[in-house]
Structures are given as structure tokens and as C-alpha cells.
From TrEMBL:
Pfam families: Aldo_ket_red (PF00248). Residues 19-259 form the NADP-dependent oxidoreductase domain. Keywords: NADP, Oxidoreductase. This is Aldo/keto reductase.
Length: 276
């Protein structure tokens, strides 16, 4: 229970450890209501992307909630067909317009598009230096992508958002990121519910009077991983946020680590179809 509700990025910016993911939520009322209910429950971190097509609805939800903008942590991402230096600057402005905000808290490169992500990063550095975004980072970057990026970079990414859950415990990548001062963040932290029936998760859920989902999210937090579970259901949002009042023991953490099988929900970054 010693885990604080916020992590501190390498530049001192605080990021809430549990955020709301909005992938596949419909633009308009669904995502607007999801943002409002999450904020009402205590969430202060909302994660979207231009690719999701729901930035406008997220913006409506932000406006409609009773919390000042400066208390919210808003993330969006530049999609693959928007990458390149000038293209990224334009994409950033489009995202800000849709979200209805003047600045972003975190802007991420969605995937490491070969031949483009270094120019894209230069654009993110410009936006960061201009104060238009408080922190910049990447998604789905493996160690070799980060090595290549940092060869010519002025700023080290503050965040790397990757697929991460007990069946895909990317220990080597996590160690690499922490050595470089890069905060790891998990998308699909619950692996879309695929592993809730694992015996160890059911046993620990019973022991702690929690759900398997809460045990998995707590496992992430104790590995110092920021999580953005997706749900538009207020009851599920409440459940996903209620993970700060228990501690998994070290041997329990190891038993969850052992669920690693390499099974992915999404594509491996080296096998992604960047031409699609």
C-alpha cells in the first residue's frame, strides 16, 4: 500500500498510475459519458489517440466534467499515416482542436514506423520545447527502436506504452526502460479478460477479497507500470480504480510473473503491417 497514486516522469511531471483507456469507444455520447463517469470516480488520466476517432468525444467529456483542466492528465498519439516532421506538427494541431484543449500532458508516437519515427520524434521535441506538451514518449517501441531513436535525440522519451500483462511480462524491456528513466505504461493491461480464470489469480482474488482484474492491475503497479484499463461501464471503472488498498507479497508477484507465455493481443512491433 506504499504505492502512490502518481508516478513521476524523468522531467518531474506527475502521471496518474491508473488511467482510462478509450480504444474502440464510439465518438460522441459513449466516450463522453465514459470520461465523465471516470472523472466522477476519481480518475484524472485519460488516454486516447487520433487513430481511435474519438478525440472530439473525449474533449466533450473533459468540458462536461466538474474538474479543472489543469487537474487532468490527457494523452493522445500520432498515428502511422500522420508521421514525419511537418505531418506530425499538423496532426498535433488537429488533435488539440478535436480535444478542445490548448496543451497536452503527454503526446506519443503510436508505432515505430520504419524510416519515419526519428523525424516524428524531432517534431515531438519541438512541441515539447515550445511548451505545447508537458511530456513526450512512444508506444510499442522495443529496445532496438529506442536505441535507434536516441542516437540523434535531444530528449529521451519519458514514456513507452506497450502491451503488457501477465501473459506478456516483458521483463527485459521493462528493465531497459527503467535503466533509461523511461516510464513503462501498459495498454491492454487486463489482456481483455483472457486470463481471469488462471488459478493463481482466482486464488489471490479470493484471499484479498478482490477480483482477478484488480489483482492483475495491482501486479502492474507493483512492477511500477502505469495502467490504462478500458471500460465505459461505471461499475467496472470503479473496480479498476480500487487497487491501492492491498499489497501482493513478493512470492505472489513471482507466481503471476510465471503466467508469462509470450501470448499477444496485438502484433509484435517488428511484425506490424506499417503499409496498411
Amino acid at each position: 500500500m506504499g504505492i502512490r497514486s502518481e508516478a513521476v516522469l524523468s522531467n518531474g511531471v506527475k502521471i496518474p498510475r491508473v488511467g482510462l483507456g478509450v480504444y474502440k469507444m464510439e465518438d460522441g455520447e459513449e466516450v463522453k459519458q465514459a470520461v465523465q463517469s471516470a472523472v466522477d470516480l476519481g480518475y484524472r488520466h485519460i488516454d486516447t489517440a487520433s487513430f481511435y476517432g474519438n478525440e472530439a468525444g473525449v474533449g466533450e467529456g473533459i468540458k462536461a466534467c466538474a474538474v479543472p483542466r489543469d487537474e487532468l492528465f490527457i494523452t493522445t498519439k500520432v498515428w502511422n499515416d500522420e508521421q514525419g516532421y511537418e505531418e506530425t506538427l499538423e496532426a498535433f494541431n488537429r488533435s488539440l482542436d478535436k480535444l478542445g484543449v490548448e496543451t497536452l500532458d503527454l503526446y506519443l508516437i503510436h508505432w515505430p514506423v520504419p524510416g519515419k519515427f526519428k523525424d516524428t520524434w524531432k517534431a515531438l521535441e519541438k512541441l515539447y520545447h515550445e511548451g505545447r506538451v508537458r511530456a513526450i514518449g512512444v508506444c510499442n517501441f522495443m529496445e532496438h527502436h529506442l536505441d535507434e531513436l536516441m542516437k540523434g535525440a535531444e530528449v529521451t522519451p519519458m514514456v513507452n506504452q506497450v502491451e503488457f500483462h501477465p501473459a506478456l511480462y516483458q521483463e527485459a524491456l521493462a528493465d531497459y526502460c527503467y535503466q533509461k528513466g523511461i516510464q513503462l505504461e501498459a495498454w491492454a493491461p487486463l489482456a481483455r479478460g483472457r486470463y481471469f480464470d488462471a488459478a493463481i489469480l482466482k486464488q489471490l482474488a479470493e484471499n484479498y477479497q478482490k477480483t482477478p482484474a484488480q489483482v492483475i492491475l495491482r501486479w502492474h503497479l507493483q512492477h511500477d507500470v502505469v495502467v490504462i484499463p478500458k471500460s465505459s461501464n461505471p461499475d467496472r471503472q470503479k473496480e479498476n480504480f480500487d487497487v491501492f488498498d492491498f499489497d501482493l507479497k513478493s512470492d505472489e508477484m513471482l507466481r503471476i510473473d510465471e503466467l508469462h507465455s509470450g501470448d499477444r493481443i496485438g502484433k509484435h512491433p517488428d511484425e506490424f503491417d506499417y503499409d496498411a
